[in-house]
Design a protein that fits this description.
This protein has 117 residues and is of the alpha+beta class. It is built from 1 helix and 7 strands; from the N terminus they run αβββββββ.
């Protein structure tokens, strides 16, 4: 292999690695995963590694889906805040999927939190 071939190969690997890491990853949430809350939260905050828009947000408790309204007109952001309805004591599961602004890649995840009685 000549030096040019090695350089091109190294550049390709570097660019591919950067692209593979460019997905919008959930860095934190409020409430946090596995949080034990004394009071029901009024909002759900999702903090991503890059600007994204929520495509899906499902909130369930005991197998029942809780209606949550997403504003489809909101701009992509690293921090997404969703207003929650009044939540009763119980365990809540959040399922989400987000679309990264820069490359359109979809990421998804799930976490839960508890509202104590």
């Amino acid at each position: 292999m000549n030096k040019f071939t090695v350089l091109v190969a190294a550049l390709a690997v570097t660019l591919w690695s950067a692209a593979a890491l460019a997905h919008a990853r959930l860095q934190s949430s409020t409430p946090a995963s596995n949080a034990q809350l004394a009071h029901a939260p009024a909002t759900l905050e999702l903090n991503f590694s890059e600007e994204a828009k929520l495509a899906v947000l499902k909130l369930t408790t005991a197998g029942t889906q809780i209606p949550v309204t997403l504003d489809r007109g909101v701009q992509a952001s690293k921090k997404i805040v969703v207003t929650l309805p009044a939540l009763q004591p119980g365990t809540y599961e959040v399922q989400w999927s987000a679309i990264a602004k820069d490359d359109g890649h979809v990421t998804k995840g799930m976490f839960s939190f508890v509202v104590q009685g």
